[in-house]
Design a protein that fits this description.
Elements (H helix, E strand, L loop, with lengths): L9 E7 L5 H12 L4 E6 L6 H9 L5 E5 L6 H9 L6 E5 L4 E2 L3 H12 L3 E9 L5 E5 L6 E2 L1 H10 L9 E4 L15 H12 L3 E12 L13 H18 L3 H22 L4 H17 L2 H7 L1 H13 L3 H19 L1
Parallel strand pairs: 1-2, 1-4, 2-3, 6-10
Antiparallel strand pairs: 4-9, 5-10, 6-7, 6-9, 8-10
């Protein structure tokens, strides 16, 4: 009898640390989509029984590996360690508490067959705690671009630095793509992979839904401003090496860093000292930017930056009612 299960040239990497119920969630969706892919599961020194549950699941799988770490390393190092166990040509990094699309592997496999890319930019959705969904990454296009164009997509914000909507050829990841100390490891890894790639394929299909949950590292109340600064600096350096128009780099610094460090603490209801620090950092960055050049690219974002610069400590009083109205309208539309 001929085996009808396709074998994909893809390794799925998932890292866990005291994941609780997310373990069963992950194993359930892996049972639905992993046939034909290698699965590398890394337990980052959990003490809630996670490694035993992973081991029991993997024991019945032909191509599943469990890597149990003796001490907690954090997601960046855990992913780097996982790469030592990858045996397929391409790597897909997935978080343990989100929802990969059931056809994600087939989507990636079709792109691989058509263009043999070094990197794939697919699309992803975001689902809020209130169950509202929207696009969060990717573009509705299907073609192959070069590294400079890929960097332009990042600088313009068309493509975000998330791992889970990307597929990486093993050769563009290197040995430690996520560093060991980087505070913005996903973004840093994506930028590094772009710089090592010659062919980047765009796919219009959604392969992932990021699910907003309380307590998420990326959604905690207290923002780590160094994360934004580290990611900004890596992207700006890469843009310089690629010879990208400095005006676009200015625009990237506006929306990615200046607006974000002021906006995010208020959106997350961070403590007042964090809100004040975010506004201070934003205004310092805005004073270094040529906002007239930014306005030629995006008037709306530039206006937002000018409001932060002019309003200073009054900015939260302006933003909070605007956010309330925005959320109210979004709920009504949903």
């Amino acid at each position: 009898m001929v085996n009808s299960v396709p074998e994909y040239p893809i390794s799925i990497v998932v890292c866990f640390h005291n994941a609780g119920d997310a373990v069963e969630h992950t194993l359930a969706w892996l049972d639905r989509i992993d046939r034909g892919a290698q699965v590398v599961l890394v337990d980052d020194a959990s003490h809630d029984g996670t490694p035993e549950r992973l081991g029991a699941w993997a024991a019945s799988k032909a191509d599943a590996v469990v890597v149990a770490l003796d001490e907690n390393h954090g997601p960046a190092r855990a992913r780097n360690i996982a790469l030592g166990h990858v045996r397929r040509e391409y790597v897909w990094f997935v978080d343990d508490d989100d929802e990969p699309a059931p056809n994600a592997l087939a989507v990636f496999d079709q792109v691989i067959r058509e263009s043999r890319p070094h990197l794939v930019f697919a699309r992803a959705r975001f689902r809020s705690a209130a169950a509202a969904e929207r696009w969060v990454d990717g573009v509705d296009e299907s073609h192959v671009i070069d590294r400079e164009t890929a960097l332009l997509r990042i600088l313009r914000g068309d493509v975000q630095g998330f791992l889970w909507s990307k597929l990486f050829h093993r050769s563009v990841l290197g040995d430690t793509p996520f560093g060991t100390e980087y505070p913005q490891e996903d973004f840093v890894g994506v930028i590094g992979a772009i710089e090592r790639s010659e062919r980047i394929a765009l796919s219009p299909h959604s392969v992932y839904t990021y699910v907003e949950r309380s307590g998420s590292l990326s959604r905690g109340r207290r923002p780590d401003f160094s994360r934004y600064a580290a990611a900004r600096d890596v992207a700006v350096a890469a843009a310089g090496r690629a010879g990208i128009d400095p005006r676009l780099v200015e625009y990237f610094r506006l929306w990615f860093y200046a607006i974000a460090v002021a906006f995010v603490p208020i959106r997350r209801r961070a403590p007042r000292p964090d809100v004040r620090e975010g506004i201070r950092l934003a205004r310092a960055e805005l004073r270094r930017l040529d906002l007239a050049e930014c306005a030629a690219i995006d008037r709306r974002a530039t206006l937002h930056g000018r409001i932060i610069l002019a309003a200073g400590p009054v900015y939260p009083a302006l933003l909070i009612p605007a956010l309330w109205l925005h959320d109210r309208l979004r709920r009504l539309r949903s």
